[in-house]
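Take the subject:
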Amino acid sequence: MKQIESSNEAIFESSHIKENIRLDDLIRDFIIVRKRTVDLFKPLRIEDAVIQSHTFGSPPNWHLAHVSWFFHKILERYGRIIQVIGDPINLDYLNSYYQKFGNILPKVERGKFPRPTVEQTLRYRAFIDESVVLFLREEQQKEFDQEIVKQQLDNLKYDMLLGIQHEMQHQELMIYDFQHYFQRFVDVEDNYKPLTVKSRPSKPRTILPPSVSGSSNVRAKNQMDSSSMVTIDCGIYELGFHGKGFCYDNELPENKTYLQQYEIDTFLVTNGEYIQFINDDGYHNYKYWLADGWDQVQENGWKSPLYWEQSENRSTGQQNKWIKKDFRGLCEINPREPVVNISYYEADAYATWAGKRLPSEAEWEKAACWNDKLQKKTLFPWGDDRPDPYVHANLLESYIWAPSEIGQYPKGISFYGCHQMIGDVWEWTSSEYTLYPGFRSKFSEYTDKWSINQKVLRGGSFATSSGQIRNSYRNYFKPHERLPFAGFRCARYI
């Protein structure tokens, strides 16, 4: 475990802190991220590894092969001709959606092809691992000999960092798939068993940031009151990544937007609060729902968040407690945990029922990263220090495998007093996913072609790597999707 923890720190440092990352750092980070993917895969039986349990997801074996294919294409981009030795595989199976790379296997059909086999995939991964490391070491020698032009070297470093970040994204997608498969298609007693599981943090003492402890905002002072909100002043805010190191191209360039004065929830909306919405007939009252969302409720029979079920009292036959199976096993719903696995439509309906609304991504980002005292943005709610998964936030390296109760990470509070804006659950915003004014693609078909009919989510989840997330990270999903580990907090105008 000690080696893994220090390795995660290394990934984060190179990806976010260093402006001029060296190729030997990239080699190290590449090896680390590739190992973690295999570690996530190891607990699966072969039969579990080739199943696609939902059209949103992919077979775990496909994830393993696809991320290797992605690095394969990066090598080809820099003139490296790679011939897979031994048992060849059909690489067309591994192209997710890149038109520039030729044939594409539609997402819904990935589970129809049990090829490459798991054995083939693992051999292919090992071959690509060796090829990438050899290539980077050769380029490293050129760097020392100053035989490579700076722009080409910078492009290579960006593409390699993108490949590493891309694999982190697929690690999280794999975990979504594990949750869905083991919840819906496997017996209650059978479950995904991670190699590493850690205990939850102890109950925290209330810690107030300077902006809240010195404020006259009485509602915000009770930091353990899940209904508390903080006030954020109006004005022009510059939205987007501000810092050195890696970011996705859709986080750039910074762009000005005007924000009205607003309030935003101190905490994420909890299971207990969401149960009040359910009990108030929230899923049966069209008045709370957008038209498309109401159609989803009617067509799919939604009555609660994904994976929730009500236990039945055998003596009375009446519905009893809400339960669900997750990575911890079959559990009663904890009312203090953030609600998770809900769609944008459900989040929006709850907000309407509560007399509030969802924040825009600019409102969310300002609440997360603007330090009014210092008059500057920070990379994370608590500042510019990289996330400590045991102190600041519940992320993949926390190895908790579920959301934490609200208030569990007091050292991760933002300047304004908002808790858990990084980690635990992704947060739906009201914003459509569009590209910022002046956007320039750094890797075509990665973030650019998806800027239609998607909603922006911010903040990361318990399955997001600490080496990937930051305040400006823009995730996006279609508003009906429920498999991502997504929740929300509310806002309202004053």
The longest strand covers residues 319-326. The chain has twelve helices and 14 strands. Residues 2-184 form one domain. The longest helix spans residues 150-184.
